[in-house]
Structures are given as C-alpha cells and as structure tokens.
Design a protein that fits this description.
Oligomer: single chain
Order of helices and strands: HHHHHHHEE
Largest sheet: 2 strands, antiparallel
Distance between the termini: 47 Å
Number of helices: 7
Radius of gyration: 16 Å
Helix content: over 70%
Number of strands: 2
C-alpha cells in the first residue's frame, strides 16, 4: 500500500507543481508571492517544488490518515532532495549548455526524475520508526525554509539563479 501511495505522490506532486507554477501571475499579492514563483528564475521555482511537497503532505494526512509515520520529516527530506537535484542538475544545463534558453522537455524531465528519486527515498523514510521530536524539528525547519524563500523573493542576491532571464529582472516584476 505504501509503495502505491508513493507512486500516487509522484503524480500528485508533478500535477500540483504544474498548477502552482502560474498562481502568482494570476493572483499577484503578498500571500501568493510568499508561496509561489513570482518570476521565471531558477530560485523562485524552489518555492513551487516545496509548496507542492507540502500540499502532498497535507493531502496524504487527510487521505491516508498517517498518524505514526514520519510524514513531516519525510516531506522535509524529500523536498530538499528534489530541490537539490533540480538545482544541481538543471542550473548548469540552463546557464551553460542551453545558454539561458528554456527547453521545456529538459526542465520537466529533470523535475520528474528528481521527484521520482525523492519519493523512492521517501518510501524508506516513511517505513522508519516514528519519532515525534524529529517531526517537530522538521516542521520548524520547513517554516524556516519558507521564510528564507519568501525573504529572498523580496531581497534576491544578484546571482544568476535569482535572475529571470526572459524578463531581465530580479525579484518581483512590476
């Protein structure tokens, strides 16, 4: 049953990421700027990934009624793994091979592979013995990560991963 749930998680996270990609553009406000990408920079897409994983965590709590599983810890670790893979693999490809020209097949392909890898690891994390302290610490770390992502939306460093190449901007578009 858990393996089936992990397959469903991959599909749901990918679907949610697709839905979340354009939320800020449709509803530009402070709240959506915290949780969704405000531009096409590599960095802003980290919010989309994290919020998709957090949304899946909430859905899985409701549907599967996980009570003695390390769901928050698993969400923390799997989202960080996905973000790390996407950033470490996609960034050099985008900046140096594609020369900042987007290729949707490469972008989505890397994201799908990263999501699958993270959810395979997530399966093993969910089968580990439950640890309430680890769950609480993981929740605090997730809140800190969201805070950092939101802060960097409004104060992006002048680095290539924060730059929206199609619009030639850093941060929130006017």
């Amino acid at each position: 049953m858990l393996k089936r749930n992990q397959i469903i998680s991959v599909l749901t996270i990918i679907l949610l990421s697709t839905l979340f990609h354009g939320i800020y553009e449709k509803f530009p406000n402070f709240l959506t700027s915290i949780f969704f990408p405000v531009n096409e920079s590599i960095w802003e897409h980290n919010k989309m990934i994290l919020v998709s994983y957090l949304s899946w965590m909430l859905i899985s709590f409701i549907i599967y009624r996980y009570d003695k599983r390390n769901v928050i810890f698993t969400t923390l670790i799997t989202s960080i793994i996905c973000i790390a893979i996407v950033n470490l693999v996609f960034t050099p490809i985008y900046l140096y091979i594609l020369n900042t020209k987007d290729n949707i097949f490469i972008t989505i392909g890397i994201f799908i592979i990263a999501t699958i890898i993270s959810q395979i690891i997530g399966y093993y994390l969910l089968t580990a013995p439950y640890n309430k302290t680890r769950e609480i610490i993981s929740l605090i770390i997730l809140i800190v990560i969201i805070t950092i992502l939101a802060y960097l939306t409004y104060n992006p460093p002048k680095l290539p991963i924060f730059y929206d190449y199609p619009k030639s901007i850093y941060g929130i578009p006017n």
